[in-house]
Design a protein that fits this description.
The chain is built from 3 helices and 3 strands; from the N terminus they run E-E-E-H-H-H. It is an alpha+beta fold. It has a 3-stranded antiparallel β-sheet, with no helix packed on it. It starts with about 30 loop residues before the first strand and ends in a 5-residue tail after the last helix.
Length: about 120
C-alpha cells in the first residue's frame, strides 16, 4: 500500500510464498498472479506456477493494520517529494536488470553452442 517505487517505502499488507517450484533457467518459470478487490474492499491475491499447477492465495481485509487517512496523505506527499529520486532508483534498477539479462544470455549461449564450447577452455 503506497505510491513509492521501492517496497520498503510502502506499507506491507500481507505476504505468501509459492513453494515447490522446480529449479528452472532464468525466464522459464511462468507465474500468473491475479488481484481482485470485491465490493467490501477485500483484496484477494492468487499466484499459480503454470508448469506444476502449484498455487497459493491470500485475502487481505480492510479492518486492521491499514493506514489512516493522515498516513495516506503523508505517503502521497512523500511520493511527490521523492519523485525524482525514485525515478533515478528505478532507472538504475532497470539498467542493472538489463546488464544481468545480457550477461545471462551470453553465458547461456556459450553453454549451449557446441562450436564455442569446444573452442573455449573452462579456465578461460
Amino acid at each position: 500500500e503506497g505510491e513509492r517505487q521501492l517496497t520498503k517505502h510502502n506499507n506491507l499488507l500481507g505476504s505468501f510464498r509459492l513453494d515447490g517450484i522446480p529449479p528452472m533457467r532464468r525466464n522459464q518459470p511462468r507465474i500468473e498472479v491475479s488481484f481482485d478487490i470485491d465490493s467490501n474492499g477485500i483484496l484477494s491475491v492468487s499466484a499459480t506456477e503454470e508448469s506444476t499447477g502449484k498455487s497459493k492465495n491470500i485475502q487481505i481485509k480492510n479492518d486492521k493494520g491499514r493506514l489512516s487517512d493522515d498516513d495516506i496523505q503523508r505517503m502521497v506527499n512523500e511520493a511527490k517529494e521523492f519523485e525524482e529520486e525514485d525515478k533515478k532508483i528505478k532507472e538504475q534498477m532497470e539498467a542493472r536488470n538489463s546488464l544481468e539479462q545480457t550477461a545471462y544470455s551470453v553465458q547461456a549461449s556459450l553453454e549451449d553452442d557446441e562450436n564455442i564450447k569446444n573452442k573455449i577452455s573452462t579456465e578461460d
